[in-house]
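Mods, move this if it's the wrong board.
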Amino acid sequence: MASQTPSRQSQVPIVIAPSILAGDFGQFAREAQRVEQGGGDWLHCDIMDGHFVPNISFGPDVVASIHRSTKLPLDVHLMTERPDRFAEAFAKAGAARLTIHLEALGNKNLGTEGRAVFERRSDSSIEDTLLAIESHGCQRGLALNPLTPVSAVEPYLDKIDLILLMTVWPGFGGQRFMEEVVPKMRAARALVQQNGRPIYIEVDGGIDAATVGVCAEAGANAFVAGTSVFRHKTMDLAGAIRELREGAGG
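Not the wrong board. Structure tokens:
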């Protein structure tokens, strides 16, 4: 029997990506430096337009300011109806990676409480935006809201570097982790292993010392954490990052 070659996905390292959305908005430069000095791998920037999600955060100028203050790669998550309109601006602002939502660009139905629920209508818009992101020199990610099935990302696997699984409904920090998303992590892991490319599986929402291990066991390898890092009970940011990394097996 021929020996099996290990999947390259196993070579993707554990990544801790603190979300600056939970930091002090008046001290973003200092907060970014704290994450860098505290051992974070990426700095996650949540961009919200008040339409795709019921909240507004910040724009390219703020991201550019953060970029000037840290050497960490900026993991920019576009929670916007029209990410195609903003990709170039955020790339120029210093994003290393731009993640857009599958439910954006005309693929959204409104669920309860205005939540974005996926309905495939426009593959070409997603593909064109991913191509534009690549042309601007950024890695490409696709985010899925809690009710969007992992199978929806399958047509784009050869065009992305990251799958982001939302473990809360996007818009506000501090929400409870949705355990029902865990099976999606396993399904995403199976898709990525079958594809063979080193695609990150990122999780975002309610990630802390109690949930990070469950996510890692299910196949996630990049962990966005806001409240559990910036508002850790001990206020020890470096310790919080270390706690997450150890919990994820990194």
